[in-house]
Amino acid sequence: MRDWMSSNLKNDFGDSKDDSWNLRWGVILWLLWSWRNSYVFTENFWKPPDPLATFLFCIFADFSDNNIPQRDVVLECWTPPSATWVKANVDGAVKGDSAMVCCSGVIRDASGKWLGGFSHSLGCCGVYEAEEWAVLMGLKCAWDEGFKKVILASDCKTLIDDLLQGSATSLGSTVHLQIRHLLDLDWIVQLQYTPRNQNVLADHLAKDVSCSSILRSCPDHLRTVLATNCMGLTPLL
């Protein structure tokens, strides 16, 4: 066993041309070890819905020098809804140095499957207003898709508290009134604050908006972010 593991970690395979196998092998071993520890020591640990797909991703992903992530990862990731619910993660952000404000969101089921999403350019406005628009658009997208049990998650704690408590911060604004109207429709919505490192996919979408659109599937350049969420990993921003 020791020799077998050592050979994999040293790339000791004769004429093998894949000089990144030791990295792939090490990542898979680390995932197994971390999942096992999380299962034993972490209450309500969410095991990735398809561990084999996670391992295949590690095996076939491009680990060339230009594609290895330069940031660390942590095991505090997106948490799924229960089986009969969907979860809409939303975010508002300023795009780069352009001062352009955008909002976005993604709806996923209990397995992490992409069910719908949106990206919307808002022009110039305050960040709080962008977060309001993100909540509004997330609710509208979920309602239009016909979902009846929705968790709406935002990393703007002030906004979530304001909406739950009816604070004067947003009370009376046009966007706030539209949010209230949607919440009063015939469905069940839970508003939830989520830490930023559990809202990574929505954050990436908000910072990458080129035009307003409804997203029926995950954009190709964000599939790795979606996959790491399903692995139980979250890139640190």
From TrEMBL:
SUPFAM superfamilies: Ribonuclease H-like. InterPro entries: RNase_H-like, RNase_H-like_dom_plant, RNaseH-like_sf, RNaseH_domain, RNaseH_sf. GO terms for molecular function: nucleic acid binding; RNA-DNA hybrid ribonuclease activity. Gene3D superfamilies: Ribonuclease H-like superfamily/Ribonuclease H (3.30.420.10). Residues 89-208 form the RNase H type-1 domain. It comes from the Eukaryota. It comes from Acacia crassicarpa (northern wattle). PANTHER family: OS05G0353850 PROTEIN, POLYNUCLEOTIDYL TRANSFERASE, RIBONUCLEASE H-LIKE SUPERFAMILY PROTEIN. This is RNase H type-1 domain-containing protein.
